[in-house]
Amino acid sequence: MQAQIQALLAQAGGAGRERGTTGSNMGFHMEVAKPAIFNREAGRVGGFIMACRLYIKMKLRGNMVEEQVQWVLTYVQGGSVDVWKENMMDELESGKAEYESVEEFLICLRKEFGGGEEESVKAAELRKMEQGRKTMEEFVQEFKRAARGNGYEGRPLVEEFKRRINGGI
């Protein structure tokens, strides 16, 4: 069955190239950046997971969950993450670990390596920000990115924003 699905996808991809179509087959024809190697560096798990989600959505959507999880694991390398990866591979191969979706696996990855480190790194990044020569629109977008998942909410977040914009505004 999987071979038939792959043949249909290859056939649909070829037809799309001939007609120059876009849409759901666009990921097959578009270059998409692969994620950087994840080695447990503080504050990097969120970016790694986002890059994996994007690549999977664009290039691996039709693949089985197990293949998607294994693909993510190829980018988990170095030091103590190698031990975690080895344990995860053993659990997957023995059937002790099964995931309904790659998203479920990515949540597990975030829980394992995200912890409070990512939140504190993001909070520190937010406290270092300055508007400087950036336009207000540019700064607002950067601030929103830095504010996501850093633990600040409500009034403290607004106060932090006010401290970071140029004084004349």
Low-confidence stretches: 15-23
How does the helix and strand content classify structurally? Answer: mainly alpha
Q: Count of DSSP helices?
A: 9
Give the DSSP E fraction (strand runs of 2 or more residues): under 5%
Q: Provide the succession of SSEs.
A: HHHHHHHHH
Overall radius of gyration: 20 Å
Q: Tell me the overall shape.
A: elongated
- What is the share of helical residues? 55-70%
Number of domains: 3
- Strand tally is 0
What's the mean pLDDT score? 81
What would you say this structure looks like, in words?
- With 169 residues, the chain is mostly helical.
- It is built from nine helices and no strands.
- It has helices spanning 2-19, 26-29, 45-59, 65-73, 80-94, 102-113, 115-128, 136-147, 154-164.
- α3 (45-59) runs antiparallel to α6 (102-113).
